[in-house]
Amino acid sequence: MNRKTKKVESESITVSAAQKEFLRKHLIKKRRIRFFQIILLIGFIAFWEVGTYIGIVDPFIFSSPSRIIKTIFEMAVDGVLFYHIGITLLETIISFALVNIIGLAVAIILWWNDSISKVLEPYLIVLNSLPKSALAPVFIVWLGNNMKTIIIAAISVALFGSIITMYTDFKTVEEDKIKLIYTLGGNKKDVLIKVVLPANIPSMISLMKVNIGLSLVGVIIGEFLAAKAGLGYLIIYGSQVFKLNWVIMSIVILCIIATGLYKLLTYFEKKYSR
Amino acid sequence: MSELLKIDHLSYTYHSLEGETQALFDVSFSVYDGEFLCVVGPSGCGKSTLLSLIAGLLTPSSGSIYINGKDIKSSGKNIGYMLQKDHLLDWRNTLKNVTLGLEIQNKLTENSYIQINDMLNTYGLITFKNSYPSELSGGMRQRAALIRTLLLEPDILLLDEPFSALDYQTRLEVADDIWGIIRKEKKTAIMITHDISEAISMSDRVVVLSKRPGTVKNIFEIKLSVPDRTPFTARSAPEFKDYFNLIWKELTCDEQKN
Fold first, then answer.
1. Same-domain pairing of A98 and A40
2. Using the beta-carbon criterion (under 8 Å), do A274 and B132 form an inter-chain contact?
């Protein structure tokens, strides 16, 4: 990171007029894109709000921006909102952490022992292609109507794909880099610690970015079926009692949470990659 | 000069589902202490297999390898191996890259840094100590790879076409560089190459292998009348082209027969 900024600085000292012009045009283009992005959002919200006033959009089933803000405010004041958000976030983060830890551990075992990986391969493929939402009702029967079920359901969504991706990445490490460790007197453990793991840190971070989204999907599916709290519960309950304000508000908050978590990982990615 | 390494009726066969491939057949030769030996041969003649066997990465199908008269596995001697590419690890800086071998063998102590800094200084890498491999030139990367190997204090150095990934001009420079370092550290070296000129310019003796299954066809002692011999000046020695023709003939008569 530091090295990169240094390079840019030393270049900017000797910038030619043509280069300045190029940079200026680039900046204008970037600003124009940002402008239209914001216009699109404002236009959408304005159409939605105005539509409910003039009667093209039925606020009873579509809610409206002002109703959403009012609902957020009301629920924030009596604290219910933060409770539901907190539950969903907690479940998502626990599932995400477990997916990464279990995924990494299993991927290492598969990489270490070729026979185990060959034996398990067909099962992993089947489990990965299976729609995991089909498992959620089974988990409720087995584990009960509680947070444990939701977390297990969320883990099942992301875990098998994670294992397969990580294991495949581990396997693609250059054969000669592995030979290098052996020529330096190392063993398989050294290959893992000195080459395979560090070489795969970038791919593990990209995988985490996928997993955070999948964990959220899993948690919401779980909450649909087996919850007394959380944004998924709010969506299902709201739609059953026709409180569409709750439903749409929860979806909006989910958008914000999903983006926030993704951005958080992008931040860590930038921080730890040179 | 005393005999350091003895290769005795060595054979090696690879097994795969498609069948077996004999890579080496009845290879015998000796390497003397302090010598620079080159092995040349057509591609696929088992040159790299030979080095892997000497390094102990493979076990011979038959025959033996001795160091100082003891079997290679029980000799306790250190063997350094340089691969075709430098294989510096991108996520480590130069210092961390050269210490990789010591780290793996748990030999990295406070005291080693004195020697490490000394070597980095001697071979012009001290100012690049904290640089990452992407910032080094091909020659610097190759030198860093050699230092990584030398820090383990090998008794014999194996080089597997160490310059093949470099462009021609860099190749000549790096060959001089690496040769100089090996001489200065008084190491015994076995280098594999398919470049006849490179072999003659660098070595004391050249072993010619036949095509697969590789076996020793001939061994040439290289004596060049140039003062201050380096791989580069060796190329202008009057005997150079005679050796070239001799080895060339040895390599090609093999093909004509078949």
1. no
2. yes
